[in-house]
Write a structure and sequence with these properties.
The structure is a homodimer. Chain A is α/β, with parallel strands linked by helices. Helices cover about 50% and strands about 10% of the residues of chain A. The first copy, chain A, has a 7-stranded parallel β-sheet. Chains A and B meet through helix 1, strand 5, helix 5, helix 7 and helix 8 of A and helix 1, strand 5, helix 5, helix 7 and helix 8 of B.
Chain lengths: ~260, ~260
Amino acid sequence: MNTPHHAEPAIALIGPQLGENIGAAARIMANFGLGDLRIAAPRDGWPNPKAQAMAAGADAILETAQVTDGFAAAIDTLDVVYAATARPRGLEKPVYGPREGVLRLWEAVRAGARVGVMFGSEKSGLPNDAVAVSDAILTYPVDVSFASLNLAQAVAVFCYEWRTSQGDAPPTVFAQAQSPPAAKADLFGLYGHLEDELERAGFFHPPEKKPMMVDNLRASLARASLTHQEVQTWRGVVRVLAEGRGPYKVRKDEA
Amino acid sequence: MNTPHHAEPAIALIGPQLGENIGAAARIMANFGLGDLRIAAPRDGWPNPKAQAMAAGADAILETAQVTDGFAAAIDTLDVVYAATARPRGLEKPVYGPREGVLRLWEAVRAGARVGVMFGSEKSGLPNDAVAVSDAILTYPVDVSFASLNLAQAVAVFCYEWRTSQGDAPPTVFAQAQSPPAAKADLFGLYGHLEDELERAGFFHPPEKKPMMVDNLRASLARASLTHQEVQTWRGVVRVLAEGRGPYKVRKDEA
């Protein structure tokens, strides 16, 4: 713990085989705001064009990734490191699900630790000697009969959980897309307009059922939480449908 | 809502381009215990050998997947469908993060609804006409400057969140790997053994600091939560180190 605050966990891929998975890991890290990638002993050398293709724009993460020969060099600047694995190793080690693991990593970050997670190779996962030096095992609530995640998917789940631990709120860009609901006065206008037209068309039959039918119609419209603009649109719908109907047209012409 | 309880959400891929992503989606569904895959208008036809290769054993999900021409047929047996998208569409629609979205889908399931999520194509995401008929937008707390997830990663995050909403606990296979901590009597034995050897080696210097040094040593050993077996191992470590040390050896020989 040399420096006071490193809020961002490192992702250390130990012996990854496929460039595609390295690139996909970089992409999902960028999606969820992480950037510290370490790659130990990539099977196909480095740089890897397939990784760049799959990164889909997260090139900066690949370019600044720390590439090392073994797992120790990939984590030796970290203070708290978890080992992601789907297999118990017979090692005495705390085992955390992703939600609890992320909360504990946050505690370490707040205490000033530099944190990270190691992910093993596609074929065999993390080597036992890497799991042995980790501070805890990170594992996912998988179906035990089909427990092995794709490498990049395993990274995705961690990055997502890390980000979500800071809040589940959709990006603010979505906030701007939502309008407030219409004023009740607008809705009463729509209700009345619709009900008048339905009355003219003989919809409320038998007449004693009209109050209940009106309430049900209003309840479904209320549930739609229409905006002011949508109320105007639906007024237009009612108008056009009513005008298009023969008997009403006749009646209007008669008036 | 025709039947009382469909606990499992359907995953509907709308216009997916790459077989690899369809296969990776099937694999992660199987990892997290989901099985109802629907595929609308896969670009490269169906079946797709690349999907099978990436499914890595989740073949049953691909074999039973419902393949349709358009998005409507892929969701028409569902009651509540969310649209996964990273882009606001200017449509008035509830917007949920994955955690809130999953909670709301569970509410729908408990009310008897059949639920699902639509994911769009790699190139352009969901078409607006599919988003329009959805019950809500599902979006992720991504970095808005790099918001587009790989298709299979987007499916992974949802499947993970669905599973985790039922509990974060590691699979029970991990529970068997952990032994209880050693009895305090074992630990007192180790402490005493270590401290006796350190005393002989002249480690406690100056003598008035010994109590504090002992407490600090014991505190770090206590924090390791050693098991009974590990205490035996460390007793052996202390013994061998002490025997190997020259002066002690001499002293022992003298005794």
